[in-house]
Amino acid sequence: MRPENAHQAVLLRLLREGGRSRAELGDMVDLSRSKLNVELDRLIELGLVEPDGLAESRGGRRSGKVRLSRQTRFAGIDIGATSVDVAVTDGELNVLGHLSEPCDIREGPAVVLDRAVTLLGKLREQGLYSQLHGVGIGLPGPVSFPEGVPVVPPIMPGWDRYPVREAVSEELGCPALVDNDVNIMALGELHAGLARQVGDFLLVKIGTGVGCGIVVDGKIYRGVSGSAGDIGHIRVDDDGPICACGNSGCLEAYFGGAALAREATAVARSGRSPYLAERLAAAGELTAQDVAVAAAQGDAAAIQIIRDGGRRVGQVLASLVSFFNPGLVIIAGGVARLGHVLLAEIRSVVYRRSLPLATGNLPIVLSELGDIAGIVGATRLISDHVYSAG
Amino acid sequence: MRPENAHQAVLLRLLREGGRSRAELGDMVDLSRSKLNVELDRLIELGLVEPDGLAESRGGRRSGKVRLSRQTRFAGIDIGATSVDVAVTDGELNVLGHLSEPCDIREGPAVVLDRAVTLLGKLREQGLYSQLHGVGIGLPGPVSFPEGVPVVPPIMPGWDRYPVREAVSEELGCPALVDNDVNIMALGELHAGLARQVGDFLLVKIGTGVGCGIVVDGKIYRGVSGSAGDIGHIRVDDDGPICACGNSGCLEAYFGGAALAREATAVARSGRSPYLAERLAAAGELTAQDVAVAAAQGDAAAIQIIRDGGRRVGQVLASLVSFFNPGLVIIAGGVARLGHVLLAEIRSVVYRRSLPLATGNLPIVLSELGDIAGIVGATRLISDHVYSAG
To answer: Which InterPro entries does the UniProt record give (chains A, B) (predicted)?
Structure first.
């Protein structure tokens, strides 16, 4: 069930921020009082909105309050390389339940999507919903947003052009939308994170790969073929390591899960870090997480790895900040848990190398949403769709 | 005189593309036939639109044609570092008259703006207008768009925070808007150039400096503090020449009017180019234009200078294309007249270094509008304002 016209859509999006009196809504939209009431009454008839008592008097007659229907339920599915998260929210996108499981993306779409649907089923059994009004899905790779399918995703064998949107929509019996993980994290920050009051911002995710969500005027900017924000293969310099893409000196070839693991292993073998050498001997391999733990213990070689990586992220980001002049930059993702050493290095390079006009008032911060950015953003994505005129 | 509501604004912008029958307009807008006629009749009363005879029959009664008032006049003023251009257009932004004069920006705002107004006066004396409905102004430096004033413009002594918009608006007795030269060139391309059907594109101007106009969804994207597109100080590498900004290896320190003149002089003195040596001896100095002429004559050293510059522009542009995924890149400005050698080098680097998804369908072209891009864009800027609800 979707709104019938643009006025109803505006009202639903306002109510997504919380219930309001009719008088308050009248102050916020460009509609006559009688037209406003017609639209609200119609939304109540459609089951999208419900009355919610009377507001405090503002001097005259008390105004009726309205809110989104208490029955409204959205689901968010956030599929990562090694995990799947699902959540159910109400119409205001408050998380009512959240489940997470390890899951290998390489098991393919049939298995992985079945896991997600099964997890959602558990939330249904807990009584959190009977019928979903929409589901948003995030995938760790390039997605054709209009078609709702992954497109040549490098770390997702078997997923290329699999009809994810169609399959999940059919399975759950509600509208579905699919986007890449970075875009849904950016939407999560826009809805519930540090970007709430910011129209134009960047969300840089540093994890297995490096990607960027671009928000222009409160909406995801996807570019003409949907690849906007794909910054992992931006050149840092010509003499750097060869990247999986075939070029040399790409950002991801320097910094990202695989590059960090490789550098950590080299450091461990060289004897420059007793901690990493010990971890390597014990576990047989090293990960970005090991570098983070080593750095937190004051391991000089690990801190140097993070600083070097931060400097390269900063160099790329400095260019993007000069070009895009955002109001905020949020750093997120697994490697972002390397924390304040990383942030300090990124800041230092961006503030030095970008134009003063672009950085004079630019906060560069670590995400505070953590793991829920993706699922909240996924529900935001689908609710933007459901709360738009059909 | 501006439209009274959003419907009238939409109709005016449609008519800016050319006159139409009421029936055709009815097919293009989301208005009932009777409401459409009310709004059109009101626009005729306001003097913004006029009747224009009857359309061919589409089967039934012949529909009345309408067009923008023949009295509508916009002016564009494009102030460069060494020249001033003015033009007067009708409501559809057809150029009715265009004058250009050499003029040194360093003479300061009072002198330069007086020159522009005097040039426009000549067009008035030719009978091209009696009253202007709006004027758009482009300046070769950073502009605070909301305030209509230049902000610390590096090559414009005496202009910092000079109230350009206010002064010109008062002098000409009509609304005025001021923007930087790159943004108005981008608007010119959007209105009359190669970008007519493209929502998201980049206009890269290579002249005395290097700048970029960013168009998102048919509108200039200015960033949160108005500095978006200021790409001249993006890092190419760390070991490059020291830039006027204090950093090293900026794009402008490699390529731009001053860098080209410097490299040409070095080449001339080294004896690697007899042509440039001769020009240097004759003129006492060399410019980017000399490099262009030498390259056109097949001078190997000049062609190498252009190739090296094109490679660096290409490296920066490759990053921006991966990030922004535009539908078109237009290269413009004085140095762009270096032409196809430059274009070939830029294309080669961008197509090799950007993501295949972003370049698969990406034309990179030289501007075909040339000198009029700025003045047409300036009239587009002000007509967008005049043709929006007040």
So the answer is: ArsR-like_HTH, ATPase_NBD, ROK, ROK_cs, WH-like_DNA-bd_sf, WH_DNA-bd_sf
The nearest alpha carbon in chain A to B6 belongs to A30
Q: Which residue has the higher pLDDT, A44 or B208?
A: A44
State the residue for tokens 């037209």. Answer: A35
B239: nearest CA partner in chain A? A237
Q: Kindly report which listed range (B102-116, B193-207, B233-247) carries the lowest average pLDDT score.
A: B233-247
Distance from CA of A252 to the nearest CA of B (A): 13
Which residue intervals of chain A bear CATH 3.30.420.40? 74-190+372-386, 196-368
Question: What CATH code is assigned to A196-368?
Answer: 3.30.420.40
Q: For B196-366, which CATH superfamily applies? A: ATPase, nucleotide binding domain (3.30.420.40)
Shortest alpha-carbon distance between residue B189 and chain A (Å)? 18
| Second CATH level (architecture) for the domain A74-190+372-386 | 2-Layer Sandwich (3.30)
| A238 token code pair | 């010509």
Where in chain B are all domains bearing CATH 1.10.10.10? 6-68
Q: Is the pLDDT of residue A95 over 90?
A: yes
Tell me the CATH class for B6-68: mainly alpha
**What single-letter amino acid sits at A173?**
G
Give ranges for CATH 3.30.420.40 in chain B: 74-191+372-386, 196-366
pLDDT beyond 90 at A212? yes
- To the nearest whole percent, how much of chain B has pLDDT over 70? 99
- Tell me whether residues B224 and A327 touch, CB distance under 8 A: yes
The distance from CA B54 to its chain's CA centroid, rounded to whole angstroms, is 37
Tens of pLDDT, residues A296-314:
888 999 999 989 999 999 9
pLDDT tens digits along B135-187: 999 999 889 999 999 988 878 999 999 999 999 999 999 999 999 999 999 99
Provide ipTM, 2 decimals: 0.89
How do A210-216 and A219-220 pair as beta strands?
A: antiparallel
> Is the CB of residue A242 less than 8 Å from the CB of residue A248?
yes
Select from A87, A89, A68 the least CA-distant residue to A18. A68
Counting every residue written for chain A, the total comes to 390
Which range, of A1-5, B83-87, B120-124, averages the lowest pLDDT? A1-5
Contacts of B254 (CB under 8 A, 6+ apart): B236, B240, B241, B308, B309, B312
Residue A65 per-residue DSSP state: E
d(CA A308, CA A295): 13
Residue A321's nearest CA partner among B208, B52, B287, B323 is B323
CATH architecture of B74-191+372-386: 2-Layer Sandwich (3.30)
Please tell me the distance in Å from B217's CA to the nearest CA on chain A.
Answer: 10
Contact across the interface for A325 and B234, Cβ inside 8 Å: no
pLDDT tens, residue by residue, B295-315: 888 899 999 998 999 999 999
d(CA B170, CA B142): 22
